[in-house]
Amino acid sequence: MPWPKDAVDQVRAVADILAASAMPLALDDIAARFQSKGPWKKRLPQLLDMLVALGRARGR
Question: Could you tell me the pLDDT band of residue 60, with boundaries at 50, 70 and 90?
């Protein structure tokens, strides 16, 4: 799937991927689900930290 342009949609997309997985996913596993180019991968750790703070993901 393409990387969402909107920040809220980015958080939602990562949360949906985590929720759909039966096992924990590493950053590379999550990144592999997206087919976009560019520097979007730099934002992924921050989004995961946000989801951890919200209780939607577990810390690394």
Answer: low
